[in-house]
Write a structure and sequence with these properties.
The complex is a heterodimer of chains A (343) and B (308).
Chain A lengths: L18 E12 L2 E13 L4 E5 L6 H9 L7 E10 L2 E2 L5 H10 L1 E4 L3 H4 L6 H13 L3 H14 L5 H4 L9 H13 L5 E5 L7 H18 L2 E6 L2 H7 L2 E6 L2 E7 H6 L4 H8 L49 E4 L2 E3 L4 H7 L3
Chain B lengths: L1 H27 L17 H10 L6 H13 L12 H36 L4 H15 L2 H15 L13 H31 L2 H8 L4 H23 L1 H14 L5 H10 L3 H29 L7
The chains are: A alpha/beta (343), B mainly alpha (308).
The structure holds adenosine-5'-triphosphate, iron/sulfur cluster and magnesium ion.
């Protein structure tokens, strides 16, 4: 077995991080069978740090985030292993009432589709103010004042006049700002943003990313930015975790990964970003389909689609090989991939 | 919303004119002479029939009859019935009883129906859910008069917990069982509708957001989930108030309640149209007004609804 080569990168090198996901396993028990959505995810994020989580649709990015928040649908979901440590305490072992206090106060989340994530029948100001009323016992008027301040902070024009409007009366970008205002209301230490800009126009996307980056710096939050768009993360992220089939296949400081990916899948992702200097050339796309979670491929889950594949890839599961103290790749042939560099 | 309300109120006028004309035309033109059968075994003498026809204006053209009806309704002059009793007096006696019965029935529908629906929707497949599914199935498959006679026999005759019939005062406690019977179908449907709505909304993204905000389970369900889930349920309850009035005819007949339903019930048997027509017209009016109120309520409950 190749595993003897080294022990996987993970908890060790990120020791003491604010939030540590450690070897997390989640599966969904459905009529069709057991879907292994998360198979040993390990990542961490510290105060003031931005981690971008990247991967195709269905790779388990959202399920991991939902497990951190404690909003996983159970059943059909089931956590079958691992730890999620927040300030060193395993959240998965906490009783529900303690867990609840961490939501919003310690860890907050911004969802993809703000229109459906906001409650349609309550005014937006009320929904933001609810954070202060429930967690801090603030009075109605104080909470409303704070809600207006937050709406100002996320740059909603004429916040004072719009505090009593309903979600459907705002544009997509404004709704996402309200979602963000609600998430940062109690000054959480960790903010998880699950594809916060996917539902928006390109110009608005940039504004929202800018706002998130500003807020993160200003409040020294740890930010987990989930996306399947490698293009947006270069400017904001410190490090990247690339997911495939419910596993982390590569983690790296953002510039290292951009310069020279160490996993064939990350390399494929990089090569599928449109670039100015590649104008006119055909865009590379990773061939094949995402893995079937009910019946994962043997060995390396990426092997059916991998241009670097050798015989042992079909039988041996690659561990997350450490490349440096801050970098790892779950590929037996990471050296070869690294040496090839990006296009 | 003000302009919308005014427009809707104006729309009521042609609808009311049309329906009341139809009611008038149909009942008075029914085959069979309403006066011929009023003298026991023998047919009534021609002189009596003619006198009655003249008194109630049946010798005039249909449109003139309708015009007179409208004039009388608008001036509040409802005239006398075939027994020369003022119609207004009968109505004034009967309305409060039916309104009491209807309010009780709506309260039963809302409290029991919504309560059972919420409990079964929150714990799908649990004991309560199965019990609710079964009992609503039974209620929905039984016609109201069967439920009525059954409860009357069981509670009134066999167990003697209540009086089998309702006295002239028709107190609230006397009306409880009849109101339950009147409410039974809608209550069962309300429970099912609530359950479906709860189950659907439980999966909604905003519920997930509410949990992620760190709210207590009680608040997630009691404020966020319920407020959304009850929109279709309250709308249903409102729309069905008109139907409830019609259902009161059967229930009041079974329990011998002297409300509008009972009045109508007896008037139809006696072919006394002087009572049938204004009562039917009033029921139409109630139906139209509650519908308008429901439409307005819908806009209050769901801010996404816009009235143009
Ligand atoms: N409630 C659920 N019931 C059953 N399966 C689920 C559920 N939620 C997620 N899954 C499955 O888990 C797998 C991972 O889903 P996840 O939402 O984490 O993907 P993702 O990486 O966030 O993708 P996307 O980019 O589309 O958001 C998917 O195959 C999905 O079908
Ligand atoms: S382990 Fe093998 S199949 Fe998997 S990514 Fe590396 S080379 Fe490709
Ligand atoms: Mg997702």
């Amino acid at each position: 077995m190749v595993e003897v080569l080294s022990e996987p990168v993970g908890g060790g090198s990120y020791e003491g991080s604010l939030l540590e996901v450690d070897d997390l396993h989640v599966e969904f028990r459905t009529r069709a069978g057991v879907a292994k959505a998360v198979n040993g995810v390990t990542y961490s994020v510290g105060a003031g740090e931005t981690l971008a989580v990247l991967g195709e649709s269905g790779s388990g990015k959202s399920v991991t985030a939902q497990t951190i928040m404690g909003i996983l649908d159970m059943p059909p979901g089931k956590i079958t292993g691992g730890e999620i440590r927040f300030r060193g305490v395993d959240l998965l072992k906490l009783p529900e009432d303690q867990r609840r206090k961490i939501r919003g106060e310690g860890i907050s989340m911004v969802f993809q589709d703000a229109l459906s994530a906001l409650n349609p029948v309550f005014p937006v100001g009320w929904q933001i103010a609810e954070m202060f009323r429930v967690h801090r016992g603030a009075s109605r008027s104080d909470a409303k004042k704070k809600a207006i301040e937050l709406m100002d902070r996320v740059r909603i024009p004429a916040a004072k006049d719009r505090v009593n409007d309903f979600p459907h009366q705002f544009s997509g970008g404004m709704r996402q700002r309200i979602m963000i205002a609600m998430a940062i209301a109690l000054d959480p230490e960790i903010l998880i943003a699950d594809e916060p800009t996917t539902a928006l126009d390109v110009t608005v996307q940039a504004q929202i990313m800018g706002l998130l980056a500003d807020l993160q710096r200003e409040r020294n939050m740890g930010l987990i930015l989930i996306t399947h768009d490698l293009g947006v993360v270069a400017d904001v992220a410190d490090k990247i975790a690339v997911m495939y089939g419910g596993r982390i296949v590569e983690n790296a400081p953002v510039h290292d990964l951009y310069r020279s990916p160490a996993h064939p899948y990350s390399k494929g992702l990089l090569e599928s970003i449109p670039r100015v200097d590649m104008k006119g050339q055909e865009l590379y796309a990773i061939k094949g389909l995402p893995p079937n979670l009910l019946e994962m491929p043997s060995g390396c889950a990426f092997h059916p689609r991998c241009p670097y594949r050798r015989d042992n890839c079909v039988t041996d599961v690659p561990p997350l090989y450490p490349i440096s103290g801050t970098r790892g790749s779950a590929c037996h042939y990471w050296r070869e991939v690294l040496d090839d560099g990006s296009r | 919303m003000g302009r919308y309300t005014i427009r809707r109120l104006l729309q009521l006028i042609p609808v009311l004119l049309g329906t009341t004309f139809l009611i008038n035309y149909m009942v008075w033109q029914l085959p069979g002479d309403p006066f011929a059968g009023r003298c026991g075994q023998r047919p009534c003498p021609d002189a009596y029939v003619n006198a009655m026809r003249a008194q109630f204006g049946l010798d005039q053209p249909v449109l003139v009859q309708y015009w007179n009806f409208l004039k009388n309704m608008l001036t509040g002059n409802l005239g006398v019935d075939f027994n020369q009793v003022p119609v207004a007096t009968s109505l004034a006696d009967a309305w409060p009883i039916t309104i009491r019965l209807a309010i009780l029935a709506v309260a039963i529908e809302a409290v029991i129906g919504i309560g059972a629906g919420v409990l079964s929707g929150l714990k799908r497949g649990g004991v309560i859910d199965n019990a609710v599914t079964l009992s609503t199935l039974v209620l929905l498959s039984l016609p109201v008069f069967v439920t009525g006679f059954l409860l009357q026999w069981l509670l009134g005759v066999q167990l003697q917990i209540v009086n089998p019939t309702v006295s002239d005062e028709a107190t609230v406690s006397e009306l409880l069982v009849p109101a339950f019977v009147l409410a039974s179908l809608n209550m069962a449907f309300t429970a099912r509708l609530t359950r479906t709505s709860i189950v659907e909304n439980l999966r909604a993204d905003y519920v997930r957001t509410a949990i992620a905000k760190g709210l207590t389970n009680r608040r997630v369900v009691g404020v966020h989930l319920l407020r959304n889930s009850l929109i279709p349920v309250l709308t249903f309850l409102g729309t069905e108030v008109g139907g409830l009035m019609a259902g009161a005819i059967i229930t009041e007949g079974i329990f011998n309640i002297h409300g509008i339903g009972g009045l109508l019930y007896r008037a139809i048997i006696n072919q006394d149209f002087t009572i049938v027509v204004p009562v039917a017209a009033l029921l139409v009016l109630v139906y139209l007004i509650t519908n308008l109120l429901v439409d307005l309520l819908y806009g209050v409950l769901d801010p996404r609804i816009r009235y143009e």
